[in-house]
Amino acid sequence: MDLKLNGKNALITGGSRGLGKQCAISLANEGVNVAICGRTPSTLDKAMSELKDLDVNVITIVGDISNLDETSQIYQTAVSKLGPIDILINNVGGTRSREDIAETKLEDFIGTFDINLFGGYELMRLVIPHMRQQGWGRIINIASIWGREYGGNISYMSSKAALIGATKHAAVSLGKYGILVNSIAPGSIVHSQGSWEKFQNNNPPDVVKKFIEENLPLGKFGWPEPVGDLVAFLSSDRAGTITGTCIPVDGGQGISMI
Ligand SMILES: NC(=O)c1ccc[n+]([C@@H]2O[C@H](COP(=O)([O-])OP(=O)(O)OC[C@H]3O[C@@H](n4cnc5c(N)ncnc54)[C@H](OP(=O)(O)O)[C@@H]3O)[C@@H](O)[C@H]2O)c1
């Protein structure tokens, strides 16, 4: 399927490893020029070495999306080096607390929103004028089944649920300008240096086996390619009537949740 994305420009936050890097690869395979950002120069350099042979422009930007000054800087750098952004993938995510309500201080609750929501929200606002002016744009926010459904800690789940809400609201406002806004809810996906790789390395095999049996209907963890390929499809005109939705990529994991 030719997605006809050749020559478009995408900004992918947190594209130096994991799901963000896969989004960059899947888009670049469709001819999309990509800007990726992250906080660690060496990880960005490694990602660049993987992306540079694809026949597109690739730029890397060092910056922290949870710091709004740096978020704006990341956007300005992407535009000046790549050109106006046609496709925004808000992929950065994480948590400042791993606890429930009694143990999560407000500052950590807010801090998790800084990572998962506020930087991405600001980037959505920054890309809208160009997308509106050209009558075409795509915004895809990487949420989680922990937020679409119940799961994880309270700050992470709440911030991902808010990201899904902002996605729906923006989709309704922006549809008439040709801008489609969607979110994706991954389940437990393993990749190098990711949290589920660490979970498997840091726990005894029987604990990992029990987690898989109780949570993963496919009998195994997920992998990044289905997320990247869905991002490429949602970015294309083939997905022209899909907006405001939150699509699980979870091997059925979410079915057991509230
Ligand atoms: N993997 C899963 O199983 C899973 C499941 C559900 C949802 N998700 C969501 O999917 C997204 C990607 O997950 P992942 O597993 O690929 O994450 P990851 O392994 O933590 O990778 C995150 C990427 O973002 C960068 N990053 C992290 N914090 C940043 C910040 N404040 N500013 C700029 N860049 C930052 C990282 O590079 P640096 O560390 O160098 O900055 C890295 O490139 C996240 O939103 C996550 O919540 C993942």
Summarize the SSE layout with pairings.
Blueprint (H helix, E strand, L loop, with lengths): L8 E4 L5 H11 L4 E6 L2 H11 L6 E5 L5 H15 L4 E4 L15 H29 L2 E6 L2 H4 L5 H21 L4 E8 L8 H8 L2 H11 L9 H11 L10 E4 L9
Parallel strand pairs: 1-2, 1-4, 2-3, 4-5, 5-6, 6-7
Helix pairs in contact: 1-9, 3-4, 4-6
Bound molecules: NADP nicotinamide-adenine-dinucleotide phosphate.
NADP nicotinamide-adenine-dinucleotide phosphate binds next to helix 1 and strand 2.
Structure overview:
It contains nine helices and seven strands, in the order βαβαβαβαβααβαααβ. The chain has 258 residues and is α/β, with parallel strands linked by helices. The chain is globular, with a radius of gyration of 18 Å. Strands 3-2-1-4-5-6-7 form a seven-stranded parallel beta sheet, with helices on both faces. The relative contact order is 0.15. It folds into two domains: 9-187 and 223-249, Rossmann fold (3-Layer(aba) Sandwich), CATH 3.40.50.720; 190-221, no CATH class. Strand 1 (9-12), helix 1 (18-28) and strand 2 form a beta-alpha-beta unit. Bound molecules: NADP nicotinamide-adenine-dinucleotide phosphate. The site of NADP nicotinamide-adenine-dinucleotide phosphate (NAP) has 27 residues, from helix 1 and strand 2.
Task: Give a concise summary.
This protein has 258 residues and is of the alpha/beta class. The chain folds into two domains: 9-187 and 223-249, Rossmann fold (3-Layer(aba) Sandwich); 190-221, no CATH class.
